[in-house]
Design brief:
Layout: E1 6-11, H1 17-28, E2 43-48, E3 55-60, E4 69-73, H2 75-86, H3 99-119, H4 125-136, H5 150-158, H6 160-163, H7 172-176, H8 178-190, H9 196-202, E5 215-218, H10 228-243, E6 247-252, H11 262-274, E7 282-284, H12 289-301, E8 305-308, H13 312-321, H14 332-344, H15 347-350, E9 353-356, E10 371-375, E11 390-392, H16 394-404, E12 409-413, H17 420-429, E13 436-440, H18 452-496
Parallel strand pairs: 1-2, 5-6, 6-7, 12-13
Antiparallel strand pairs: 1-3, 3-4, 8-9, 9-10, 10-11
Helix pairs in contact: 1-2, 1-5, 3-5, 16-17
GO molecular function, one term: glutamate-tRNA ligase activity
Transmembrane segments: 469-494
InterPro entries: aa-tRNA-synth_I_CS, Gln/Glu-tRNA_Ligase, Glu/Gln-tRNA-synth, Glu/Gln-tRNA-synth_Ib_cat-dom, Glutathione-S-Trfase_C_sf, Rossmann-like_a/b/a_fold
Length: 497
């Protein structure tokens, strides 16, 4: 055993969740103090230090202070040492007699660390990770053996933000990777504790949030009135901005003139004021259209976008089946020429759209060459009238504007989970500043409708029914009156004769 009295674990922005969990398991086994062993009092202390990049461990000995030393390490690496100090049998398995079990469990843990470090460099890799882990768990209850080990704890926290649920909510990861979710709930039940410090870190925290520098945004489309679902999104953006003493932006996503109207924009501003929500400034996606066209040209010049005149139905079928468009490999010069026709809104431009060239074989169908620009010439924009002939899609404009406007954390409902990979593809391909995405569950009520599209359809249907009812009522009343009037005149004629 290492001859020490106290171990100070200093951490910076990232909390040492694996080490803390090992420490909690040690306490749960009967040692309620912070002792490393039951024979000698040796303390484990977690201390926050903003100057520490990952974690720094300090070993102290009161009798021989000259042997005290500090070591820079990482959470997952020092967890192995801590397991040995606290004898929690999660990595070293001191209670297990067969040495081959020890070697296997330790090798598995090191392999999982290397796997995640190698794979999670890019946002799209999370789907590859989930595919692999989900397949691995098809015939396994735990990650390394038939009991809880350090591998389970490490992977649990790597997967936490994707599979953690609040009030029974679900997201794309939970429904798509059921084996992982089954395992996740098992580990969650095994790791339950009353550690307020750890639970506070895991609860409602924004990734890499710095006090005073957090910027959120509420980006409604002015195509309808706000409902309670929008209010939830607005309140969450405001809450986190205030929590970290940052600011919230209000940006109108006016990229589709077919649905938008100035009356909705004014109503949204009035509703936010009524709710008592304050924002730093108002911006409009349409004010960035020239810049977004520049970024579209940049993608075309990079060979990452192309013009396509495939019909809507055929394109939908091709994306579903993973079939590439015949225009996918057209020259950059040809694509730039077509895009210029789209900007001018002429006959050639109206037949085309611009699609991002990503991966038509990707399992995430949102990555199968989505449309990023399309022509709309016959409907005026409610702010710019007929100034623009082609418009960017929301999926293209959103990540670019989030990055350019200084947004640090984009809060989105989990119905957009499958679009996160696409969001980061635009960020990375255009070499823009990274924006962190925080997902929350979409609000839903029993026996009612929250979708703005469905509400609009319902209101339109009711209005039409009411109009038809009064129309036929007055028509019937008019005919009845006319009939009675004619019969009355006929009766007067008969009486007179």
């Amino acid at each position: 055993m290492i001859n020490i009295d106290t171990v100070n674990i200093y951490y910076g922005k990232k909390y040492p969740v694996v080490c803390r969990t090992v420490f909690n398991i040690h306490k749960s086994k009967g040692n309620k103090n912070n002792d490393i062993s039951n024979n000698t009092k040796k303390n484990i202390i977690f201390i926050k230090n903003e100057n520490v990049k990952n974690i720094q461990v300090e070993f102290l000995n009161e009798k021989t202070p000259e042997t005290n030393k500090k070591v820079d390490t990482s959470d997952e690496i020092f967890a192995k040492v801590l397991d040995n100090l606290l004898q929690t049998n999660l990595y070293n398995l001191t209670e297990k007699k067969k040495s081959q079990f020890v070697v296997f469990v330790q090798a598995q843990y090191n392999d999982w660390i290397d796997f995640f470090h190698y794979k999670k460099n890019k946002p799209k890799d999370i789907f590859m990770i989930c595919d692999y882990v989900n397949k691995y768990l098809q015939l396994n209850t735990f990650m390394s053996f038939h009991f809880l080990t350090l591998s389970d704890i490490y992977i649990y926290y790597e997967m936490y933000k994707f599979f953690h649920t609040i009030n029974g909510s679900t997201n794309t990861y939970i429904t798509q990777y059921k084996n992982i979710f089954r395992w996740f709930r098992l580990i969650q039940s095994l790791l339950q504790n009353d550690d307020q410090q750890l639970n506070a870190y895991l609860k409602d925290k924004l990734e890499n949030a710095v006090e005073g520098k957090v910027v959120t945004r509420f980006p409604p489309e002015p195509s309808g009135y706000l409902h309670i679902g929008h209010a939830k999104a607005a309140f969450l953006n405001s809450y986190y901005a205030n929590l970290y003493k940052g600011k919230m932006l209000l940006r109108f996503d006016d990229t589709n003139p077919v649905l938008e109207d100035i009356k909705y924009e004014q109503s949204i501003i009035e509703d936010l004021k009524m709710l008592g929500l304050k924002y730093e400034k108002i911006s409009y996606s349409s004010d960035y259209f020239p810049l977004l066209q520049t970024y579209c040209i940049k993608l075309i010049e990079m060979g990452k976008a192309y013009a396509d005149d495939t019909s809507v139905d055929e394109m939908r079928n091709q994306r579903g089946d993973g079939i590439e468009s015949v225009n996918r490999n057209n020259s950059v010069k040809h694509n730039l020429n077509i895009f210029q026709h789209m900007v001018e809104g002429d006959e050639i431009g109206q037949k085309n759209c611009i699609r991002a060239k990503i991966d038509m074989q990707c399992k995430n169908k949102c990555m199968r060459d989505p449309v990023i620009f399309r022509c709309i010439i016959d409907i005026p924009h409610h702010r710019h009238q007929y100034k623009y002939k082609c418009y960017p899609t929301y999926d293209f404009a959103c990540p670019i504007l989030d990055s350019l406007e200084g947004v640090t954390h984009a809060l989105r409902t989990n119905e957009y989970s499958d679009r996160i990979e696409q969001y980061y593809w635009f960020i990375n391909t255009l070499n823009l500043r990274k924006v962190y995405i925080y997902e929350f569950s979409r609000i839903a009520f029993v026996k009612t409708v929250m979708s703005k599209r469905k509400l609009k359809w319902f209101c339109t249907l009711i209005c039409n029914r009411i109009f038809n009812f009064f129309f036929f009522f007055f028509f019937f009343f008019f005919r009845l009156t006319l009939f009675c009037t004619n019969n009355l005149l006929l009766w007067y004629v008969i009486c007179y004769l």
